[in-house]
Amino acid sequence: MKKSELKQMIYKEVKQQFVRMRHPLDRQVNNAVGIIRKLQHLNLMSPATVIRLSKALGGDKEDKIKGVKAVKSFVRAYNLK
Q: Which of 28, 24, 77, 21 is nearest to 56 (CA)?
């Protein structure tokens, strides 16, 4: 599999997970973690950003909401949706 094919496949998966971000908060957190992993795999997200978002998604309810919003805005910024 070529690298470009792999990249397109990951973009497609990110798009599908982004659509699922309309579920309850615990499902949104799971989808956000999946998106973070995929974006880190493509080197679109720095390790420091991954750590900050992971801490936010592992905190209390308010932190989780902020973390999910941050992941959504990150995906929108890269036009991956």
A: 28
